[in-house]
């Protein structure tokens, strides 16, 4: 189990080193406009919608997810090092797309291997995944400090180094193939899209989790706008990402006590209030304190959402259902919020981004209230019929 924990720490440390400061790099180092930054950052989630299923298909075809994971890591290292040498906006577009394709293999294939391993030996996925949150949080702080001393370009070297360490650890991970036969997204789509509750939940993920992911793009710029330094950006990400770990550790217990609907409703409501607060231009210290709320909106949202999706979908379509959920929340939702947010910031101010996020999250509250009011989840027998 410890080898997985160390592996997740390294992978999320690598991702965190760029996620927290890439928009700042575009602004301070390359002097791009906010709309250009929004366009570049919105490319990754939309590319991921198509590239993640491709990695999954290759993994199923080769029956060797570990091999495909190592390929994804190695290609990400090469692309990131090339990325650091590019100044042209048009070439940046290409590099963003290429890195999104290669990097999109890392999390789902890591999860596939770890979940298969856990199913064989027993264990708690949350106790592994929380090390990812810790790695992401620590990366934000350390990357900010190193960037202050050596320049923002250092984030690419940190990313490459930690992925290289991940490759070394990856050779020690157990080989794993899926224990159940997966149904393709294409075959599962017609059935799932006829389920009203499932479609509504996709929109819920779009409007609630999309802004949460898009915030990673603009949060660093927002902190700087309020007078924060690169170290301050690192501290903010440390607090927000670090708060996910304890909530993720106890997510199963909290969901069992309060129910999925209440946890998801709480996540949407807290997100909406957080974005409203940011729109009002609060003191920087209040932004740091409010960052703790990300533990609720991510640390509890992810396990509750996965549990909800799995209960709505039949066994043979659960992988398809999770893929669709990820596509709407991590893909389309993040793309929409990031893309529109960039233009709102250019035409008004960076604070306008957060009124968009708040409005979307309040829509999510309404959707979840409706789902809760019709909360009978169908039994497996009812789904099968």
UniProtKB/TrEMBL annotation:
Domain Major facilitator superfamily (MFS) profile: 1-376
A Pfam entry, by short name: MFS_1_like
Cellular component annotations (GO), alphabetically ordered: plasma membrane
GO molecular function terms noted in the UniProt entry: cytidine transmembrane transporter activity; uridine transmembrane transporter activity
Membrane topology: Multi-pass membrane protein
Main location: membrane
SUPFAM superfamilies attached to this UniProt entry: MFS general substrate transporter
InterPro entries, sorted: MFS_assoc_dom, MFS_dom, MFS_trans_sf
Top-level lineage group: Bacteria
Keywords, ordered alphabetically: Cell membrane, Membrane, Transmembrane, Transmembrane helix, Transport
UniProt subcellular location: Cell membrane
TM region(s), chain numbering: 6-26, 38-57, 77-101, 122-142, 154-177, 198-215, 221-239, 260-279, 285-309, 321-344, 350-371
Signal peptide: none
Name under which the protein is recorded: MFS transporter
Species this protein is from: Gottfriedia endophytica
